[in-house]
């Protein structure tokens, strides 16, 4: 083996060792953990309910504001892609709001609000609405479907997908939430 060849081999070995160390570091020290997404509170605003006895018809308006907390436990930034929050009534979409793309710095906890206005026509055309209104319990689900990425050492991108569901029950007469139950699942 020539001298040049040996030097090339040594340089190549050093390069491989450094690359290997970086990859191991990337997956240990910088091993991505799932960002925590939490809905602290859901407020009801401009809630109005009217019942026309003669036409046997209701009218109903409400706007929900969810206080969302995103906690990034990683030593690296978490980038949320453009997405949206949806409001469902018994599997039917009755509201939608955009969630703009944003970056959550390493170890940062960020708060933002999502405001969803019920599309009255979609809600009132559902066959179960009469039943729920007469029981004074309106079940709605707020869905936050949040895709994002964490970037290890600026080279390895890891996709993260967090889904949060909040099942709520609205007490129409009292104009308040009767219950709120949220759960999150994450794929990394
Ligand atoms: C709900 O909102 C619509 C549009 O703003 C309005 O026309 C309607 O009167 C409202 N309903 C009630 C019960 O206030
Ligand atoms: C979210 O809304 C609440 C009241 O509805 C307000 O007090 C709070 O400052 C808002 N948070 C953000 C991050 O805008």
TrEMBL record:
<feature type="transmembrane region" description="Helical">
    <location>
        <begin position="6"/>
        <end position="30"/>
    </location>
</feature>
<dbReference type="InterPro" id="IPR004864">
    <property type="entry name" value="LEA_2"/>
</dbReference>
<dbReference type="GO" id="GO:0098542">
    <property type="term" value="P:defense response to other organism"/>
</dbReference>
<protein>
    <recommendedName>
        <fullName>Late embryogenesis abundant protein LEA-2 subgroup domain-containing protein</fullName>
    </recommendedName>
</protein>
<dbReference type="InterPro" id="IPR044839">
    <property type="entry name" value="NDR1-like"/>
</dbReference>
<keyword id="KW-0472">Membrane</keyword>
<dbReference type="GO" id="GO:0016020">
    <property type="term" value="C:membrane"/>
</dbReference>
<feature type="domain" description="Late embryogenesis abundant protein LEA-2 subgroup">
    <location>
        <begin position="68"/>
        <end position="163"/>
    </location>
</feature>
<keyword id="KW-1133">Transmembrane helix</keyword>
<keyword id="KW-0812">Transmembrane</keyword>
<dbReference type="Pfam" id="PF03168">
    <property type="entry name" value="LEA_2"/>
</dbReference>
């Amino acid at each position: 083996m020539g001298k040049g060849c040996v030097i090339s081999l040594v340089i190549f070995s050093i390069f491989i060792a450094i690359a290997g160390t970086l990859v191991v570091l990337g997956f240990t020290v910088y091993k991505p953990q799932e960002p925590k997404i939490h809905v602290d509170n859901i407020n009801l605003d401009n809630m109005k309910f009217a019942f026309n006895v003669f036409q046997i018809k209701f009218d109903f308006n409400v706007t929900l504001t969810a206080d969302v907390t995103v906690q990034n436990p990683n030593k690296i930034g978490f980038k949320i892609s453009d997405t949206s929050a949806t409001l469902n009534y018994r599997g039917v979409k009755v509201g939608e709001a955009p969630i703009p793309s944003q970056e959550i710095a390493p170890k940062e906890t960020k708060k933002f609000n999502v405001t969803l206005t019920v599309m009255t026509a979609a809600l009132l055309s559902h066959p179960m609405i009469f039943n729920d209104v007469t029981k004074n319990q309106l079940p709605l689900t707020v869905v936050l479907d949040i895709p994002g990425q964490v970037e290890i050492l600026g080279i390895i991108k890891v996709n993260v997908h967090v889904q949060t569901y909040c099942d709520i029950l609205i007490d129409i007469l009292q104009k308040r939430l009767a219950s709120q139950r949220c759960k999150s699942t994450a794929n990394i």
